[in-house]
């Protein structure tokens, strides 16, 4: 039996001998040695909440539902201890195949946790943190079906038991950015006709190249250009660089939508194998939200365009605009519709095009080095793969964090609203935070009042959570409740609600990290801790908003209303108090306001 430490980069599952097999794509820390760990023992399950006719439930389920095990378990359902029947299936597809039939049984009141993807279930149940270190125990094997890698140094480990969480350690990852330039004389590039003329690459390990079939004309600085004989050789050389440098994370800008689809199309036309996956597989496109995401097994692809749209509010999200906003510098630019003219010119304009191609990938890697640490930290906190997390809205990140915390708390997660329930919830409209339009003019003697983590603090202090709210019920002991202004919603002061508890833990952890950051004298440590506290702040600030999102598992319109009602009350009360001390409010928005001092003696 072998024991090995490894950093988990990616995860999926395949079917082997009609059974699901979890595949963990990993590398040994401190080395470039790659491995794939296989777990054949994990099985899918869901929970059934029985109806009053539950005496027949087990018998009803003995029909042809592909069930391999039934077990009564005591779990929490909105903080109330409840008996659920846990049913285990042979294959993840069986959950979707049978859930509607099972839901219709008279002995079934509700079914839960049928929509958690199998690989995410594995991460949650085994407390595995992607991009972090685990201990693996098993036997090395020579080969396995579906793994056709040409990498002779690749190790394949058949696990004896689930991975064990190891001590968290900062990891170094090889990051490569890439970008295509296409000859496009007819406007928008057409992959059936328009050739790739340049592939630019840059990295955090010193590699900077533009692969092309030409060199510069007048500029003697051709050092960064690698000239190849044709487009096919260009694509092959790009693939060789990815493999040769053991790239862990590949980043692009709009690469889900353009660069990777275009590269795949041209590779197919030119008969180039783009088998970049650790298992020998090629480039695939996976549905994520409303779009397709380019995926390579064991090599994490992050499209920074999608990430920056969530992290920044700009008038447009071109690479040039984002780079200028982040670094205050303008990058080299060539009009997109002129690229083919620059290419054909064989003059100074061609030289400019080469500089532009290199500058694109250098700018992309700079953005990646700036923004990926926060995403890596969120990956560690939320517990989902970086590939998925980088494509999640902030609300989805918060929800998956809550799903993980619910498992730790022995809480069965609610189902997502669907169908008519979703349509009805979409029609509900919360008033939102208090806003006072700014007074026009130039103002002096200004003071800013800002509530620190206003909405998260309200959720915690008022215990706002769907599991402790009391609706349509008169209560005598109001001292035991927090009663919201305007609407009169009542929230029990005890026990602590699930979501307030989670947010409280997040804010407490953030406070500890900020204290460590303040006490640390090491700049590298300070920077690392700052990223951690920023990630926690982002998570906490997101959670209040998703109460009002109709597809949120813990959706509660009443909770959303109560939060903003208390927020408006605190803002207005604070403004009134400021006015008593001679200040006049000139602007207010959600969690803060500006006042100016007015000398009443004049």
Distance between the termini: 86 Å
Shape: globular
Enter the CATH topology name of the largest domain.
Nucleotidyltransferase, domain 5
Helix content: 25-40%
- The number of distinct helices, counting runs of at least 4 residues, comes to 16
Indicate how many domains the architecture comprises: 3
Average pLDDT works out at 90
Assess the beta-strand content as a share of residues.
Answer: 15-25%
CATH architecture of the largest domain: 2-Layer Sandwich
SS-derived structural category: alpha+beta
Rg on CA atoms, Å: 28 Å
Number of strands: 25
Poorly predicted segments: none
For the largest beta sheet, what order do the strands appear in spatially? 14-13-12-11-15-18
Which CATH first-tier class of the largest domain would you pick? Alpha Beta
| Biggest sheet architecture | 6 strands, mixed
Structural commentary:
The protein is an alpha+beta fold. It folds into three domains: 2-42 and 126-165, OB fold (Dihydrolipoamide Acetyltransferase, E2P), CATH 2.40.50.730; 175-381, Nucleotidyltransferase, domain 5 (2-Layer Sandwich); 416-596, Alpha-Beta Complex (Palm domain of DNA polymerase). The protein is 36% helix and 25% strand. The chain contains 16 helices and 25 strands. A six-stranded mixed sheet has the order 14-13-12-11-15-18, with helices on both faces. Strands 1-2-3-9-8 form a five-stranded mixed β-barrel. Strands 5-6-4-7 form a four-stranded antiparallel sheet, covered by helices on one side. A hairpin with a 4-residue loop joins β12 and β13.
Short description:
This protein is of the alpha+beta class. It folds into three domains: 2-42 and 126-165, OB fold (Dihydrolipoamide Acetyltransferase, E2P) (Beta Barrel), CATH 2.40.50.730; 175-381, Nucleotidyltransferase, domain 5 (2-Layer Sandwich); 416-596, Palm domain of DNA polymerase (Alpha-Beta Complex). The protein contains 16 helices and 25 strands.
């Amino acid at each position: 039996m072998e024991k090995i430490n490894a950093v988990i980069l990616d995860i999926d599952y395949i079917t082997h001998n009609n059974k699901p097999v979890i595949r963990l794509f990993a590398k040994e820390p401190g080395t470039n040695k790659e491995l794939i760990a296989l777990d054949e023992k994990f099985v899918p399950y869901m929970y059934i909440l029985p109806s009053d006719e539950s005496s027949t439930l087990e018998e009803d389920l003995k029909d042809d539902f592909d069930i391999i095990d039934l077990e009564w378990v005591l779990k929490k359902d909105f903080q109330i201890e409840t008996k659920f029947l846990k049913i285990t299936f042979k294959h993840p597809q069986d959950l979707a195949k049978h859930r509607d039939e099972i839901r219709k049984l008279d002995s079934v009141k509700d079914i839960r946790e049928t929509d958690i993807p199998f690989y995410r279930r594995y991460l949650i149940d085994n407390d595995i943190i992607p991009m972090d270190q685990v201990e693996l125990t098993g036997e090395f094997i020579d080969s396995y079906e579906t793994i056709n890698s040409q990498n002779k140094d690749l190790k394949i480990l058949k696990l004896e038991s689930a991975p064990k969480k190891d001590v968290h350690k900062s990891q170094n990852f090889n990051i490569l950015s890439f970008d295509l330039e296409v000859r496009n004389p007819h406007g928008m590039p057409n992959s059936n006709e328009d050739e790739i003329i340049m592939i630019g690459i840059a990295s955090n390990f010193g590699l900077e190249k533009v692969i092309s079939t030409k060199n510069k004309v007048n500029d003697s600085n051709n050092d960064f250009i690698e000239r190849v004989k044709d487009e096919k050789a260009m694509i092959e050389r790009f693939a060789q660089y990815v493999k040769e440098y053991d790239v862990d994370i590949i980043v692009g800008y709009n690469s889900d939508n353009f660069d990777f689809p275009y590269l795949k199309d041209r590779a197919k036309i030119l008969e180039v194998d783009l088998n970049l996956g650790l298992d020998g597989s090629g480039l695939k496109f996976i549905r994520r939200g409303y779009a397709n995401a380019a995926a390579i097994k064991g090599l994490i692809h992050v499209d920074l365009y999608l990430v920056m749209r969530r992290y920044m509010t700009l008038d447009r999200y071109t690479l040039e605009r984002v780079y200028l906003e982040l670094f205050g510098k303008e990058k080299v630019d060539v009009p997109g519709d002129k690229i083919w003219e620059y290419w054909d010119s064989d003059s100074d304009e061609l030289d400019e095009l080469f500089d532009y191609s290199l500058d694109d990938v250098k700018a992309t890697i700079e953005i990646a080095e700036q923004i990926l640490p926060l995403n890596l930290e969120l990956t560690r906190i939320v517990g989902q793969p970086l590939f998925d997390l980088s494509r999640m809205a902030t609300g989805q990140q918060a929800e998956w964090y809550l799903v993980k915390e619910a498992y730790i708390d022995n809480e069965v997660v609610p189902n997502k609203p669907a169908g008519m329930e979703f349509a009805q919830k979409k029609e509900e409209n919360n008033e939102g935070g208090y806003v006072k339009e700014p007074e026009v003019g130039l103002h002096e003697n200004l003071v800013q009042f800002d509530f620190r983590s206003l909405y998260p603090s309200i959720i915690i202090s008022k215990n706002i959570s769907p599991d402790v709210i009391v609706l349509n019920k008169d209560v005598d002991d109001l001292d035991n409740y927090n009663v919201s202004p305007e609407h009169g919603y009542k929230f029990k002061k005890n026990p602590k609600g699930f979501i307030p508890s989670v947010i409280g833990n997040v804010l407490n952890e953030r406070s500890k990290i900020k204290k460590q950051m303040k006490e640390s004298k090491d700049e590298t440590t300070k920077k690392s801790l700052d990223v951690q506290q920023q990630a926690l702040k982002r998570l906490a600030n997101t959670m209040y908003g998703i109460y009002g999102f109709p597809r949120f598992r813990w959706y509660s319109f009443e909770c959303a209303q109560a939060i903003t009602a208390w927020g408006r009350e605190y803002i207005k009360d604070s403004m009134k108090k400021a006015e008593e001390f001679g200040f006049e409010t000139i602007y207010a928005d959600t969690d803060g306001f500006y006042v100016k001092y007015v000398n009443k003696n004049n």
